[in-house]
């Protein structure tokens, strides 16, 4: 019978190449592994059996099996353990990869082995890694978006974080991140002479650009301080941001244009793009390197409801001589966001709306809770794509919120920059929100009107309104 996965095979191979992972197809150039595979038949006959791909990366081995249909990603037994029957090993990607990985771990000197099952295609796919030991043990690991975690530069950190469950050198507490924020605030003031409202936009924009590294759409080395129009550091960052928004399916075009307009200070600021004599590089490159080392890698791997960009925002405002309220900014602490989600008992099948979302703290807390309780990958994808909605009046806050959600792979980021109080109630109701989360960030003189408007506009099953003290 002809193999049904040629397109999936080619897509996986391309992804491995993009991540700089050297691999072998249908066997291995490593003698010990190749010898072991000569007795690795999935049918248990003791004859030859070859996985789709193998790769040796330092002390680690990764074994990949793929299937064309997402329905063939993984099969568990009724007891909730990985099915190791012949049919399951033959027909499912994760089960097949686990079979080969265990065989390699048991019959070669390599004891640090990852089995990776892949199904689907370029547009719709699932990638599930499993840690395998040389006995009968294994550890299911979170699904991943790409193979970048298994590159030579990242695999050690990935192993430490997800297999050993230990903090890595780049994993920090919120307290440490806030210390970094204080330092970055000083750098932004000293080298960029930025206005308070522009600082978080610079941070959010750079983080979006950094998120393109894993796709090959941006690199730190590309920031050279070139002063030719169209090739300046700010131009390169904006190109990466534009690509990141497209990759996240941010639309319609008017929304994308609004976000790009907010981040355009990266291009328009002469000071940010000029090579600084003290730094011997542009402030933009200096900020980008700082954010990559001190913040980005933490946010990238962090599975928490903490609103890191929001915390940055608050820290910037506090160092500017206030708590941000002069700019209409009142940031909700994480524990309050989590409490509100607990009070209304947010569930994976809910649709959540925050009419005044700020930096999206409530939505991030809700998303974290929903994803943790979700049963299937399809349900998780639906949560990110369709079940989180927010409105924000201030365009700079809207841009920070959108970046905050996109960095957490929320799909198309269902946020709108508009005045909720002026929305057509019927149009808002089309979102089908079952849970409302809101903090009183509205000036006192119109609070009563705003609350009445919420009641008139939406009929939530459950609603939590956090009112700040006066």
Summarize the helices and strands and which ones pair or pack.
Elements: H1 6-18, E1 24-25, H2 31-37, E2 53-57, E3 60-67, H3 86-91, H4 93-107, E4 112-120, E5 125-132, E6 138-140, H5 155-163, H6 174-192, H7 199-210, H8 233-247, H9 253-263, H10 265-268, H11 270-273, H12 283-301, H13 308-319, H14 334-343, E7 352-354, H15 361-373, H16 377-386, E8 388-392, H17 395-406, E9 415-417, H18 425-429, E10 435-439, H19 447-457, E11 462-466
Parallel strand pairs: 3-4, 7-8, 7-10, 8-9, 10-11
Antiparallel strand pairs: 1-2, 2-3, 4-5, 5-6
Description:
By secondary structure, the protein is an alpha/beta fold. The chain folds into 3 domains: 158 residues, Trna Endonuclease, Chain: A, domain 1, CATH 3.40.1350; 146 residues; 139 residues, Rossmann fold. The chain is built from 19 helices and 11 strands. Strand 5 and strand 6 form a beta hairpin. It starts with 5 loop residues before the first helix and ends with a strand. About 3% of the residues have low confidence.
How do the strands line up in the largest sheet? 1-2-3-4-5-6
Structural class: alpha/beta
| Overall structural domain count | 3
Report the order of strands and helices. Answer: HEHEEHHEEEHHHHHHHHHHEHHEHEHEHE
From the alpha-carbon coordinates, what is the Rg to the nearest angstrom?
24 Å
Task: Give the amount of beta strand, in percent.
Answer: 5-15%
Unreliable residue runs: 320-328, 442-448
CATH architecture label of the largest domain = 3-Layer(aba) Sandwich
The number of helical elements comes to 19
Shape: globular
How far do the termini sit from each other? Answer: 73 Å
The whole-number mean of residue pLDDT values reads 82
CATH class of the largest domain: Alpha Beta
CATH topology of the largest domain: Trna Endonuclease, Chain: A, domain 1
- Main sheet specs: 6 strands, mixed
Helix share, percent: 40-55%
